[in-house]
Amino acid sequence: MPKRHPSAGKDQKPVIIVGAGLAGLVAAFELSRLRIPVLLLDQENANNVGGQAFWSLGGIFCVDSSYQRRMGIKDSRELAMKDWFNSAQFDREKEDYWPRKWAEAFVNFATDEMEDYVKARGLGFLVNVGWAERGDGRADGHGNTVPRFHLTWGTGPEVVRVFAEPVKKAAKKGTVEFRHRHRVDEIILDELTGRAVGVKGSILEEDNSPRGVKSSRTVVDQFEIHGAAVLVTSGGIGGNVDKVKAAWPVDRLGPKVPQNFVIGVPHHVDGRMIDITESAGANIINRDRMWHYTEGLANWNPIWPGHGIRVLPAPSSLWLDANGKRLPNHLFPGCDTLGTLKYICSTGHDYTWFITDQAIVAREFALSGSEQNPDVTGKSVWGVLTQRVLSKKGTVPVQNFVKHGVDFVVKDNLEDLVEGMNQLVAKIPGGVPLDYQKIKDVVETRDSQFDNPFSKDAQTMLINSARTYWPDKRSRIAPPHKLLDKKKSGPLIAVRMNLLTRKTLGGIETNLKSQVMKADGSVFNGLYAAGEVAGFGGGGVHGYNSLEGTFLGGCIFSGRAAGLGIAEELGYDISKASNVRARL
Q1: DSSP string for 124-139
Q2: Pairing relationship of beta strands 229-232 and 523-529 according to DSSP bridges
Q3: How far apart are CA 368 and CA 312, in angstroms?
Q4: What is the C-alpha separation between 167 and 252, in angstroms, rounded?
Q5: Residue 31 · residue 15 · CB < 8 Å
Q6: Interatomic CA distance for residues 159 and 457, integer angstroms
Q7: DSSP 8-state symbol, 386
Q8: Would you say 184 and 199 are in contact if contact means Cβ atoms under 8 Å apart?
Q9: H or E segment and range at residue 222
Q10: What pLDDT, on a 0 to 100 scale, did the predictor assign at position 341?
Q11: pTM over 0.90
Q12: Which helix (H) or strand (E) holds 357?
């Protein structure tokens, strides 16, 4: 364990962490190991410790891991670095200065330390590595060349647990203090030096709502707290549709701002602290870079307002735009999120269609969210085996969406299916009625490519290629088949896919110690930022595109960097705390 610096006093003021999500917990964990006093403030109640990470599927980006090697996957630092920079497409000289450095540092950490670091906390992964964001079809383009999505055994709650438990133990010892229902409204600056020395805010009335449920904003008191440093880890803007629309890059994702979204994060992910930190003098960069999904479902059993669930699809479903036209190559399910979003926006509509069947849905529809994966969240080997490998209907949550979801149409023949789709269209403002004969032509053209084991159709080739990865062949990708062959595949299913808000890729600019930067390029003394509020590092470590597993990973890495950076500034010896610190 790193040693405490002799000059560090026992009566030291606490480090104030604004936001008890994953990045804040990781920073608190690192600080508490050094017995540095920490005060964690959060506007939500104690049920929400861990923030968005709790609701996640728990995927973490690792490079050349023991799990990859066991699966026969040949990954390397060099390959991952190429994939990252080809995907990020950094193109801004000033705003991408620190994001570039963070990207290199993160890939190095994902290669050298991520697996060991989380395992040391008690985290484990499923044995098979997932292949997310398979790419745009170019060797030098966006996407993962190999599978790198390491799914946590226990999903998001387990990721939260392994950091929350030691922090809560430190709280029992008095090193850490949680103050819930404390909403920060202002960062206090020293009048002479300009250093961040504390925070002011509002105490909200008690509200014992369950995790994720929208809580009261009634103010009952005020507070002012001074500390040794201030760390902002408050998350992004995904729960605030108005902010999402205001930041929408019409020049890149035009011709207009989408009007309809389902919401992929709780209401408290409101972006307030980004504005508050900017008002204090922080530099906010890359506001227009966001990560919103194109396969969103309205949750039939919502927890927060507008609650949406993302489908993590494998590549077999036929994807049509609102006009009934097949999406271009290589905009296939699970391949290129931003490219698909750009195309959808170009149609002038906010939704698309999957035409699929029972066999594909059972095997290929994975749902985002820890609560949508009770088998993995509950660490049930039997549940995974019976629901994901052997089931012909899919997991119970998938079956519930097929049965109750407003976006699903299930019919025995294509003509009835299109009629059902048009019944949904009639309820959509500006929706486009679909022509049965045109849809039939598209489906039959797709099906014609399955008469032989070879094909000229790019999606068919992708399906065949993806099944060469044996874990996907066993449990993730359905055997190639015709959609209209219902004897082999069950009833036809159409799914309206909505745009779903999720992540902020830009944010507060930070250096590699998570210190906040000012617009003139100088360090904002005493002020730090980590996690999504800082674009997962630097103000935009992903550039324009994510490779997935990098949001939790980015919170862990940037939260750790913040904890170590603050400790270093306060006079603690961190030389033995991190091999990566020497490289930074």
Answers
A1: -B-SSPB-----SS-T
A2: parallel
A3: 7
A4: 42
A5: yes
A6: 40
A7: I
A8: yes
A9: strand 219-226
A10: 98
A11: yes
A12: strand 351-357
Name the pLDDT band for 29 (thresholds 50, 70, 90): very high
User: Token digits for 209?
Assistant: 């709502």
Q: Is 374 helix (H, G, I), strand (E, B) or coil?
A: helix
Burial class (CB in 10 A: 0-12, 13-18, 19+), 273: buried
Under the banding of pLDDT at 50, 70 and 90, the label for residue 508 is: very high
410 with 484: CB under 8 angstroms? Answer: no
Phi/psi at 27 (5° precision): -60, -45
Query: CA 563, CA 560: separation in Å to the nearest integer?
Result: 5
DSSP structural state of residue 408:
E
Give whole-number Cα distances, 174 to 8, 14, 36, 517, in Å.
Answer: 17, 11, 10, 32
Q: Are 159 and 152 in contact (CB under 8 A)?
A: yes
Rounded CA-CA distance 236/243 in Å is 10
- The arrangement of strands across the sheet holding 219-226 comes to 182-189, 196-204, 219-226
Tens digits of per-residue pLDDT, 520-529?
Answer: 999 999 999 9
Q: Which residues contact 487 (CB under 8 A, 6 or more apart)?
A: none
> Is 119's pLDDT higher than 90?
yes
Given its phi and psi angles, is residue 286 left (phi above 0), alpha (psi -120 to 50 degrees) or beta? Answer: left
Q: Residues, the chain, total?
A: 584
Q: Is 136 a residue whose pLDDT tops 80? A: yes
Secondary structure letter of residue 328 according to DSSP:
P
DSSP tag of 13 = P
**Other CB atoms closer than 10 Å to residue 2's CB: what's the count?**
18
Residue that the structure tokens 């490079």 belong to: 63
Contact present, 443 and 494 (Cβ < 8 Å):
no
Distance separating alpha carbons of residues 407 and 477, to the nearest angstrom: 22
H runs (alpha helix) in 476-513: 486-489
pLDDT, one tens digit per residue, over 292-350 is: 999 999 999 999 999 999 999 999 999 999 999 999 999 999 999 999 999 999 999 99
Assess contact for 52 and 235: CB atoms under 8 A. yes
- Candidates 18, 107, 54; CA nearest to 580 is 107
Q: Following DSSP, what letter does each residue of 365-379 receive, concatenated?
A: EEE-SGGG-HHHHTT
Rounded CA separation 234/497 (Å): 29
Residue 475 parent element (H or E): helix 470-475
Query: What is the pLDDT at residue 488?
Result: 77
pLDDT tens per residue across span 78-113: 999 999 999 999 999 999 999 999 999 999 999 999
pLDDT at 202 over 90: yes
Residue 451 makes CB contacts below 8 A (sequence gap 6+) with none
Range of lowest pLDDT (8-12, 172-176, 274-278, 542-546):
8-12
DSSP 8-state secondary structure symbol assigned to residue 564: H
- In this structure, how many other beta carbons lie within 10 angstroms of the beta carbon of residue 227? 21
The answer to whether 583 and 105 have CB atoms below 8 angstroms apart is yes
Tell me the C-alpha distance between 409 and 216, whole Å. 37
CB 233, CB 529: distance < 8 Å: yes
Question: Letter for the amino acid at 344?
Answer: I
